[in-house]
Write a structure and sequence with these properties.
The complex is a heterodimer of chains A (124) and B (443).
Chain A lengths: L1 H22 L15 E6 L9 E6 L3 E7 L4 E5 L4 E5 L6 E6 L4 E7 L5 E8 L1
Parallel strand pairs in A: 1-3, 2-8
Antiparallel strand pairs in A: 3-6, 4-5, 4-7, 7-8
Chain B lengths: L1 E2 L14 H21 L13 E2 L2 H7 L2 H24 L8 H10 L3 H8 L3 H4 L1 H15 L16 H15 L7 H22 L1 H8 L1 H10 L4 E4 L2 E4 L16 H18 L2 H7 L4 H33 L6 H4 L5 H20 L1 H7 L23 H30 L4 H26 L3
Antiparallel strand pairs in B: 2-4, 3-4
The chains are: A alpha/beta (124), B mainly alpha (443).
Chain lengths: 124, 443
């Protein structure tokens, strides 16, 4: 009885491991297929707020060119990458150029009335 | 485009991919039903709960008054530094020690230490150290007054309220990392704690009503080390959750706040919630998040009591199942916290190296570490996902085992009834765990 239980537990574990290996997508390091051309985004926030949050998706290692316009004077700040640029009505957009070398999700924040105005998603 | 230092939550994990969510959920289901067939038929964990004593010399050192006083003094000093930074330091997360210390070093960092080493908060609690010091001094001066008896019925409800208020500050308030807000919170919390300790005595107040004593005390039951009768003992992990008496009133509510607040934190990062709340102002946003937090805690609490109701019907018993089974939720609360916050702890914890040198943001360089550059990608995303899913599944298994052991203890000569109480709790844990996995997989 006891041996039967241990055998069943081991069989379940083995099954779970096999299923994991079968489901798991191959590779892991996809650095080779990072697009060579930069990802360009424009985030334009209107007077009524950011609305649905834009997700800016890029691949790890890709160059990003991002322009943000705001309806009021504001410092625009990208979390994690910790870069900041100022913009306001009638001014040139806040411009960011960087290489997305850290994977994860990063909030783009406009200091002032609203907090998060978009999210950068850097996929591995 | 200028660079600047920032902290607390600068990087968020990528969502767990769909296939891994489905795999994790599948394993949870299979493991749960297999557990019913595979688990032991006699209480097993409870008799190991007392553990094996370590050498007496080691206990004498670890539990010595000198060490207790030294750690207590250090804790009071750190509380003072953090409070001073919050009160007069630069008003930004990146250059003020207080937010990162409170939300990362204290709130997240003590969790793994407690689970590995045992209840170190007992010695590191600055409020308790100060209160006990004051009581000792009052005794020496002959000014000691007999404290009022602590109302039993109040139980741990004040601690549950305290933890809820802390969660509300962190997750609902619009500027949780504002040092001045933290300074005010420290004043209010310290005042309430010391008044409570003065009225009811620290011996009654802290284990019942001080939120962090209850929080770390619950987690310490998982630890392989504990103190029994003045000796340090070593035991299997998590056996401290088995056996023993039913918890004090309010413990279920406390655990519901633990689980519900982490779940709400995960939910509030989903694109659904962010889209719905992005355009709200500071005050409205705070109130809406507060309502969301309450709904999640109430949901955890409500589902638990529904489960208890079903279990009582199935086993036709009037025993206090709500109290008896609450321990089995502690591992789940732990893995909720680990899976949501471990990468945050490792990433943001590095900022402490920088902040220690310049805690107030005045341009100091006390330890020469001001220019330390943290590594914002210490783990591959896939490593984070596997740890998240793996810990959630492991917590689920431990929770099941603890609940199962409890049931066998409650119905010693009636395994059938013990198993019948298990069906609803099995469903409950599957719900909690799969919900946790689902929240991690959301965009």
């Amino acid at each position: 009885m006891r041996i039967a239980r241990i055998a069943l537990a081991l069989a379940l574990l083995a099954g779970a491991a096999l299923l994991f290996l079968a489901l798991r997508p191959g590779g892991g390091d996809n650095a080779d297929d990072t697009p060579a051309e930069p990802a360009r985004f424009e985030v334009a926030v209107g007077p009524e707020g950011p609305g649905e949050l834009a997700q800016l998706r890029v691949r790890r290692g890709q160059r990003v060119e991002l322009e943000v316009t705001m309806p009021y004077e504001s410092d625009v700040h990208l979390h994690g990458y910790d870069i900041m640029a100022a913009t306001g009505p009638g001014e040139p957009p806040a411009r960011f150029e960087f290489v997305a070398d850290t994977p994860g999700r990063f909030d783009l924040e406009a200091h002032g009335r609203w907090e998060t105005i978009a999210q950068l998603v850097v996929e591995p | 485009m200028t660079p600047l230092a920032h902290g607390v939550g600068s990087v968020q994990d990528l969502p767990v991919p769909q296939w891994l969510f489905l795999y994790g959920a599948g394993v949870v289901l299979v493991v749960s039903f297999a557990a019913l067939a595979l688990l032991w038929r006699q209480p097993l964990l409870a008799r190991h709960a007392n553990g094996r004593p370590l050498p007496a010399g080691l206990s004498r050192v670890v539990l010595s008054p000198a060490l207790r006083i030294a750690l207590g003094a250090l804790a009071v000093f750190l509380l003072f530094v953090v409070f001073a930074a919050a009160l007069v330091g630069e008003r930004s997360v990146g250059s003020n020690l207080a937010p990162t210390f409170v939300y990362v070093a204290f709130w997240l960092g003590l969790v793994p230490l407690t689970v590995v080493l045992g209840n170190i908060w007992r010695a590191l609690n600055p409020w308790r150290a100060a209160a006990e010091g004051a009581e000792w001094l009052a005794g020496r001066l002959g000014a000691h007054a007999e404290p009022y008896p602590y109302p039993e019925r109040l139980g741990r409800w004040p601690a549950a309220l305290g933890l809820f208020l802390f969660a509300a500050l962190e997750l609902a308030y619009f500027e949780p990392a504002d040092p001045r807000a933290l300074a005010l919170a420290i004043v209010l919390y310290s005042g309430a704690t010391w008044i409570g300790a003065l009225v009811f005595g620290s011996r009654a107040w802290f284990p019942n009503a001080e939120a962090f004593t209850v929080y770390f005390g619950l987690l310490a039951r998982i630890a392989p080390f504990a103190v029994r009768d003045g000796r340090v003992v070593v035991r299997w992990p998590a056996v401290g959750l088995a056996g023993g008496s039913n918890p004090r009133p309010g413990t279920v509510a406390f655990v519901a706040v633990m689980l519900g607040s982490v779940a709400f934190d995960g939910f509030s990062r989903s694109s659904f919630w962010v889209d719905e709340t992005a355009n709200l102002g500071d005050l409205t946003g705070s109130l809406v998040r507060l309502a969301g937090l309450l709904v999640w805690i109430a949901a955890v609490f409500g589902i638990y009591h529904l489960t208890v109701f079903a279990a009582k019907r199935l086993a036709s018993t009037d025993l206090d199942l709500a109290g008896a089974f609450v321990w089995s939720l502690v591992p789940i609360a732990l893995v909720y916290a680990v899976s949501h916050y471990f990468s945050l702890l490792v990433i943001e914890g590095q900022f402490l190296v920088t902040l220690a040198s310049d805690p107030f943001g005045f341009g100091w360089d006390l330890f020469g570490t001001r220019d330390f550059r943290p590594n914002l990608a210490p783990f591959a995303p896939s490593t984070i996902w596997y740890v998240q899913v793996g810990t959630l599944v492991a917590g689920h298994v431990v929770g099941l085992a603890v609940a199962h052991d409890r049931a066998l203890e409650l119905f010693p000569r009636d395994t059938g009834r013990a198993l019948r109480t298990q069906y609803p709790f099995l469903v409950l844990m599957v719900i909690y765990t799969v919900a946790g996995l689902y929240l991690l997989s959301q965009d």
